[in-house]
Amino acid sequence: MTEFSAGYQTGTVLDPDRTNWDGTGPRPISWSLWYPSETSSATEKQLIGPPGRPYFDNGLINSVGDVSKGKVAYPLILMSHGTGGSAPAMGWFGRRMAEAGYFVLGANHHGNTSLEPYRPEGFLCSWERSRDLSRLADDILVNPAFADRIDRGRIFAAGHSLGGHTVLACAGATYSNDQFLSWLGDQPDLDGPREFPDLGKHVGPLMANSQPFREAMSRHGKSYHDPRFKAVFAMAPAPTVRGFTDRSLVGVRTPVHIQTGAADQECPADTCTHWLGSKNPDFQIEILEGDVGHYVYLSLATEHAREDLPQISIDPPSVDRDTIHTHAATAAHRFFSATV
User: Fold this and answer.
1) pLDDT tens profile 216-252
2) Regarding the domain with residue range 5-339, which homologous superfamily does it belong to in the CATH classification?
3) Are 224 and 131 in contact (CB under 8 A)?
4) Which of 7, 57, 158, 198 could form a cystine bridge with 35, CB 3.0-4.6 A?
Protein backbone atom coordinates (compact mmCIF):
# COMPACT_ATOMS: atom_id res chain seq x y z
CA MET A 1 0.00 0.00 0.00
CA THR A 2 2.97 2.34 0.39
CA GLU A 3 2.91 4.87 -2.44
CA PHE A 4 3.74 8.06 -0.55
CA SER A 5 5.37 9.27 2.62
CA ALA A 6 2.95 10.34 5.34
CA GLY A 7 2.88 14.06 6.04
CA TYR A 8 1.57 15.23 9.40
CA GLN A 9 0.09 18.43 10.82
CA THR A 10 -2.03 19.42 13.81
CA GLY A 11 -4.43 22.24 14.62
CA THR A 12 -7.67 23.20 16.29
CA VAL A 13 -11.12 24.13 14.97
CA LEU A 14 -13.67 26.01 17.05
CA ASP A 15 -17.37 25.21 16.66
CA PRO A 16 -19.37 28.39 17.35
CA ASP A 17 -22.65 26.44 17.35
CA ARG A 18 -21.69 24.63 20.57
CA THR A 19 -19.93 25.73 23.74
CA ASN A 20 -17.09 24.07 25.55
CA TRP A 21 -18.06 22.10 28.65
CA ASP A 22 -17.31 25.10 30.89
CA GLY A 23 -19.63 27.32 28.84
CA THR A 24 -16.90 29.92 28.44
CA GLY A 25 -16.40 29.77 24.67
CA PRO A 26 -16.95 27.72 21.52
CA ARG A 27 -16.35 23.98 21.50
CA PRO A 28 -12.73 23.18 20.60
CA ILE A 29 -11.90 20.30 18.28
CA SER A 30 -8.17 19.73 18.06
CA TRP A 31 -7.13 17.59 15.14
CA SER A 32 -4.33 15.52 13.63
CA LEU A 33 -3.94 15.26 9.88
CA TRP A 34 -1.97 12.66 7.96
CA TYR A 35 -1.67 13.20 4.21
CA PRO A 36 0.26 11.92 1.17
CA SER A 37 3.67 13.56 0.93
CA GLU A 38 6.60 12.99 -1.40
CA THR A 39 8.41 9.71 -0.79
CA SER A 40 11.72 11.58 -0.93
CA SER A 41 10.71 13.84 1.97
CA ALA A 42 12.59 13.64 5.25
CA THR A 43 10.88 11.47 7.87
CA GLU A 44 11.15 10.91 11.58
CA LYS A 45 9.60 8.41 13.96
CA GLN A 46 6.36 9.64 15.52
CA LEU A 47 6.35 8.75 19.21
CA ILE A 48 3.25 9.55 21.29
CA GLY A 49 3.02 10.07 25.02
CA PRO A 50 4.76 11.81 27.91
CA PRO A 51 8.03 13.60 27.04
CA GLY A 52 10.94 11.25 27.53
CA ARG A 53 8.60 8.31 28.13
CA PRO A 54 6.52 7.77 24.96
CA TYR A 55 3.84 5.13 24.94
CA PHE A 56 3.09 4.60 21.24
CA ASP A 57 5.14 4.34 18.06
CA ASN A 58 3.36 5.38 14.86
CA GLY A 59 6.24 4.79 12.49
CA LEU A 60 7.83 7.32 10.14
CA ILE A 61 6.06 10.57 9.31
CA ASN A 62 7.03 13.88 7.73
CA SER A 63 5.88 16.96 9.66
CA VAL A 64 7.19 19.52 7.15
CA GLY A 65 6.47 18.08 3.70
CA ASP A 66 3.92 19.44 1.26
CA VAL A 67 1.04 17.44 -0.17
CA SER A 68 2.36 15.18 -2.91
CA LYS A 69 1.82 16.29 -6.50
CA GLY A 70 1.47 12.67 -7.50
CA LYS A 71 -2.28 13.11 -7.88
CA VAL A 72 -4.54 16.09 -8.40
CA ALA A 73 -6.85 15.21 -5.50
CA TYR A 74 -7.00 12.58 -2.79
CA PRO A 75 -9.86 10.96 -0.85
CA LEU A 76 -10.49 12.12 2.72
CA ILE A 77 -11.16 9.98 5.81
CA LEU A 78 -12.58 11.57 8.99
CA MET A 79 -11.31 9.51 11.94
CA SER A 80 -12.71 9.12 15.47
CA HIS A 81 -10.74 7.65 18.39
CA GLY A 82 -12.07 5.42 21.16
CA THR A 83 -13.37 6.69 24.48
CA GLY A 84 -10.66 8.47 26.43
CA GLY A 85 -8.17 8.07 23.57
CA SER A 86 -6.77 10.38 20.94
CA ALA A 87 -6.24 10.70 17.23
CA PRO A 88 -2.43 10.35 17.59
CA ALA A 89 -2.91 7.01 19.35
CA MET A 90 -4.46 5.80 16.09
CA GLY A 91 -1.61 7.17 14.06
CA TRP A 92 -0.90 3.67 12.72
CA PHE A 93 -4.11 4.01 10.68
CA GLY A 94 -3.50 7.61 9.69
CA ARG A 95 0.03 6.89 8.52
CA ARG A 96 -0.81 3.77 6.55
CA MET A 97 -3.79 5.35 4.82
CA ALA A 98 -1.76 8.47 3.98
CA GLU A 99 0.92 6.25 2.48
CA ALA A 100 -1.84 4.69 0.35
CA GLY A 101 -3.02 8.10 -0.87
CA TYR A 102 -5.63 9.38 1.61
CA PHE A 103 -6.01 12.46 3.75
CA VAL A 104 -6.87 11.25 7.27
CA LEU A 105 -8.24 13.92 9.59
CA GLY A 106 -8.61 12.68 13.16
CA ALA A 107 -10.65 14.50 15.81
CA ASN A 108 -9.73 14.75 19.48
CA HIS A 109 -13.17 14.81 21.07
CA HIS A 110 -13.51 17.54 23.71
CA GLY A 111 -13.68 16.14 27.24
CA ASN A 112 -13.26 12.58 25.96
CA THR A 113 -9.65 12.65 24.83
CA SER A 114 -6.43 11.94 26.68
CA LEU A 115 -5.04 15.20 25.25
CA GLU A 116 -7.30 17.17 27.65
CA PRO A 117 -8.52 16.65 31.21
CA TYR A 118 -11.34 14.11 31.11
CA ARG A 119 -14.85 15.44 31.61
CA PRO A 120 -17.86 13.20 32.39
CA GLU A 121 -19.88 15.30 29.92
CA GLY A 122 -17.55 14.18 27.14
CA PHE A 123 -18.12 10.53 28.03
CA LEU A 124 -21.89 10.84 28.45
CA CYS A 125 -22.73 12.82 25.29
CA SER A 126 -21.42 10.51 22.59
CA TRP A 127 -23.57 12.11 19.89
CA GLU A 128 -21.48 15.28 20.04
CA ARG A 129 -18.61 13.32 18.49
CA SER A 130 -20.40 12.87 15.14
CA ARG A 131 -20.87 16.61 14.91
CA ASP A 132 -17.14 16.98 15.52
CA LEU A 133 -16.39 14.96 12.38
CA SER A 134 -18.86 16.95 10.30
CA ARG A 135 -17.41 20.21 11.61
CA LEU A 136 -13.87 19.10 10.72
CA ALA A 137 -15.05 18.16 7.24
CA ASP A 138 -16.59 21.62 6.87
CA ASP A 139 -13.29 23.22 7.85
CA ILE A 140 -10.85 21.26 5.74
CA LEU A 141 -13.00 21.67 2.64
CA VAL A 142 -12.49 25.43 2.83
CA ASN A 143 -8.93 25.36 4.19
CA PRO A 144 -6.80 27.00 1.48
CA ALA A 145 -3.88 24.68 2.23
CA PHE A 146 -5.85 21.50 1.51
CA ALA A 147 -9.27 22.19 -0.04
CA ASP A 148 -8.18 21.89 -3.68
CA ARG A 149 -6.34 18.62 -3.01
CA ILE A 150 -9.34 16.72 -1.67
CA ASP A 151 -11.68 14.64 -3.84
CA ARG A 152 -15.07 15.80 -2.55
CA GLY A 153 -16.80 12.79 -4.04
CA ARG A 154 -14.66 10.40 -1.99
CA ILE A 155 -15.09 11.34 1.67
CA PHE A 156 -15.24 8.51 4.22
CA ALA A 157 -15.19 7.97 7.99
CA ALA A 158 -13.40 5.47 10.23
CA GLY A 159 -13.36 4.94 13.97
CA HIS A 160 -12.44 2.61 16.80
CA SER A 161 -14.60 1.61 19.78
CA LEU A 162 -16.71 4.68 20.66
CA GLY A 163 -15.28 6.04 17.44
CA GLY A 164 -16.96 3.11 15.68
CA HIS A 165 -20.23 4.24 17.26
CA THR A 166 -19.44 7.76 16.08
CA VAL A 167 -19.00 6.89 12.42
CA LEU A 168 -22.09 4.66 12.41
CA ALA A 169 -24.06 7.69 13.60
CA CYS A 170 -22.55 9.65 10.73
CA ALA A 171 -23.90 6.91 8.43
CA GLY A 172 -27.43 7.46 9.76
CA ALA A 173 -27.78 5.33 12.91
CA THR A 174 -29.78 7.29 15.50
CA TYR A 175 -29.06 6.89 19.19
CA SER A 176 -31.67 6.58 21.95
CA ASN A 177 -30.26 7.07 25.43
CA ASP A 178 -33.37 5.47 26.97
CA GLN A 179 -32.91 2.37 24.83
CA PHE A 180 -29.25 2.09 25.77
CA LEU A 181 -29.91 2.55 29.49
CA SER A 182 -32.67 -0.08 29.34
CA TRP A 183 -30.25 -2.55 27.75
CA LEU A 184 -27.46 -1.56 30.15
CA GLY A 185 -29.70 -2.27 33.15
CA ASP A 186 -29.71 -5.94 32.15
CA GLN A 187 -25.90 -6.11 31.97
CA PRO A 188 -24.69 -6.52 35.57
CA ASP A 189 -21.04 -6.75 34.56
CA LEU A 190 -21.01 -3.49 32.61
CA ASP A 191 -20.37 -0.23 34.45
CA GLY A 192 -18.82 2.99 33.22
CA PRO A 193 -15.55 3.02 31.25
CA ARG A 194 -12.25 2.63 33.08
CA GLU A 195 -11.81 6.41 33.14
CA PHE A 196 -15.23 6.93 34.81
CA PRO A 197 -16.42 3.73 36.53
CA ASP A 198 -19.13 5.76 38.32
CA LEU A 199 -20.14 7.70 35.19
CA GLY A 200 -23.88 7.44 35.81
CA LYS A 201 -23.59 9.25 39.14
CA HIS A 202 -22.51 12.43 37.35
CA VAL A 203 -25.74 12.85 35.39
CA GLY A 204 -27.89 14.34 38.16
CA PRO A 205 -25.40 16.98 39.31
CA LEU A 206 -24.61 17.94 35.72
CA MET A 207 -28.28 18.33 34.83
CA ALA A 208 -28.70 20.58 37.86
CA ASN A 209 -25.59 22.68 37.44
CA SER A 210 -24.34 22.65 33.84
CA GLN A 211 -26.10 24.55 31.07
CA PRO A 212 -23.74 23.15 28.37
CA PHE A 213 -24.59 19.63 29.51
CA ARG A 214 -28.33 20.32 29.46
CA GLU A 215 -28.02 21.75 25.96
CA ALA A 216 -26.05 18.72 24.80
CA MET A 217 -28.61 16.35 26.30
CA SER A 218 -31.35 18.16 24.38
CA ARG A 219 -29.57 17.23 21.16
CA HIS A 220 -29.58 13.50 21.93
CA GLY A 221 -31.83 11.40 19.72
CA LYS A 222 -31.34 13.53 16.62
CA SER A 223 -29.92 12.22 13.39
CA TYR A 224 -26.32 13.15 12.70
CA HIS A 225 -26.21 11.52 9.29
CA ASP A 226 -23.70 13.26 7.05
CA PRO A 227 -24.37 12.30 3.42
CA ARG A 228 -20.92 13.52 2.40
CA PHE A 229 -19.45 10.39 4.02
CA LYS A 230 -19.75 7.78 1.29
CA ALA A 231 -18.73 4.78 3.43
CA VAL A 232 -17.70 4.09 7.03
CA PHE A 233 -15.22 1.61 8.50
CA ALA A 234 -15.93 0.77 12.15
CA MET A 235 -13.32 -1.06 14.23
CA ALA A 236 -14.64 -2.85 17.33
CA PRO A 237 -17.68 -0.57 17.82
CA ALA A 238 -18.57 0.08 21.47
CA PRO A 239 -21.52 -1.31 23.47
CA THR A 240 -23.22 2.08 23.12
CA VAL A 241 -24.32 0.88 19.68
CA ARG A 242 -27.05 -0.96 21.59
CA GLY A 243 -28.69 2.45 21.81
CA PHE A 244 -29.11 2.70 18.04
CA THR A 245 -32.75 2.26 17.11
CA ASP A 246 -33.77 -0.66 14.91
CA ARG A 247 -35.56 1.66 12.51
CA SER A 248 -32.49 3.82 11.95
CA LEU A 249 -30.15 0.85 11.50
CA VAL A 250 -32.46 -0.73 8.94
CA GLY A 251 -32.51 2.58 7.11
CA VAL A 252 -28.73 2.99 6.81
CA ARG A 253 -27.83 3.03 3.13
CA THR A 254 -24.25 4.20 3.50
CA PRO A 255 -21.90 1.22 2.97
CA VAL A 256 -20.61 -0.05 6.33
CA HIS A 257 -17.75 -2.41 7.10
CA ILE A 258 -17.34 -3.55 10.72
CA GLN A 259 -14.19 -5.32 11.87
CA THR A 260 -13.78 -6.79 15.38
CA GLY A 261 -11.42 -9.19 17.10
CA ALA A 262 -12.92 -12.50 18.18
CA ALA A 263 -11.37 -12.14 21.65
CA ASP A 264 -12.53 -8.57 22.27
CA GLN A 265 -13.72 -8.39 25.90
CA GLU A 266 -14.49 -4.64 25.92
CA CYS A 267 -16.79 -4.70 22.90
CA PRO A 268 -17.69 -8.37 22.39
CA ALA A 269 -18.52 -9.33 18.84
CA ASP A 270 -21.80 -11.02 19.78
CA THR A 271 -22.97 -8.05 21.85
CA CYS A 272 -21.99 -5.33 19.39
CA THR A 273 -20.83 -6.31 15.91
CA HIS A 274 -23.07 -9.32 15.27
CA TRP A 275 -26.02 -7.46 16.82
CA LEU A 276 -25.49 -4.62 14.35
CA GLY A 277 -25.26 -7.10 11.50
CA SER A 278 -28.53 -8.70 12.56
CA LYS A 279 -30.26 -5.33 12.17
CA ASN A 280 -28.93 -4.58 8.69
CA PRO A 281 -27.80 -7.48 6.51
CA ASP A 282 -26.03 -5.07 4.15
CA PHE A 283 -23.40 -4.33 6.79
CA GLN A 284 -20.15 -6.12 5.98
CA ILE A 285 -19.00 -8.01 9.09
CA GLU A 286 -15.42 -9.18 9.55
CA ILE A 287 -14.28 -11.06 12.67
CA LEU A 288 -10.54 -11.41 13.20
CA GLU A 289 -10.17 -14.91 14.61
CA GLY A 290 -7.93 -16.08 17.42
CA ASP A 291 -6.78 -13.99 20.36
CA VAL A 292 -7.30 -10.56 18.75
CA GLY A 293 -8.62 -8.22 21.44
CA HIS A 294 -9.85 -4.66 21.71
CA TYR A 295 -6.70 -2.63 22.20
CA VAL A 296 -4.89 -4.10 19.24
CA TYR A 297 -6.35 -1.10 17.38
CA LEU A 298 -4.11 1.27 19.32
CA SER A 299 -0.67 2.11 17.94
CA LEU A 300 2.37 -0.08 18.62
CA ALA A 301 3.20 0.02 22.32
CA THR A 302 6.62 0.93 23.62
CA GLU A 303 8.31 -0.69 26.60
CA HIS A 304 7.17 2.30 28.66
CA ALA A 305 3.55 1.57 27.74
CA ARG A 306 3.93 -2.11 28.54
CA GLU A 307 5.25 -1.13 31.96
CA ASP A 308 2.75 1.65 32.75
CA LEU A 309 -0.34 0.58 30.76
CA PRO A 310 -0.16 -3.21 30.42
CA GLN A 311 -3.92 -3.68 29.96
CA ILE A 312 -3.92 -1.76 26.68
CA SER A 313 -0.39 -2.49 25.56
CA ILE A 314 0.34 -6.19 25.94
CA ASP A 315 -1.22 -8.56 23.40
CA PRO A 316 -1.28 -12.35 23.63
CA PRO A 317 1.83 -14.05 22.19
CA SER A 318 -0.16 -15.22 19.18
CA VAL A 319 -1.11 -11.66 18.17
CA ASP A 320 1.21 -9.35 16.26
CA ARG A 321 -0.23 -5.84 16.51
CA ASP A 322 1.69 -4.56 13.49
CA THR A 323 0.27 -7.36 11.33
CA ILE A 324 -3.26 -6.58 12.48
CA HIS A 325 -2.72 -2.89 11.66
CA THR A 326 -1.58 -3.74 8.15
CA HIS A 327 -4.55 -6.03 7.66
CA ALA A 328 -7.04 -3.45 8.95
CA ALA A 329 -5.66 -0.63 6.82
CA THR A 330 -5.62 -2.88 3.76
CA ALA A 331 -9.22 -3.89 4.42
CA ALA A 332 -10.25 -0.24 4.79
CA HIS A 333 -8.46 0.73 1.58
CA ARG A 334 -10.08 -2.13 -0.30
CA PHE A 335 -13.51 -1.29 1.11
CA PHE A 336 -13.32 2.44 0.40
CA SER A 337 -11.95 1.84 -3.11
CA ALA A 338 -14.89 -0.43 -3.91
CA THR A 339 -17.65 1.88 -2.70
CA VAL A 340 -17.14 4.92 -4.93
Assistant:
1) 999 999 999 999 999 999 999 999 999 999 999 999 9
2) Alpha/Beta hydrolase fold, catalytic domain (3.40.50.1820)
3) yes
4) 7
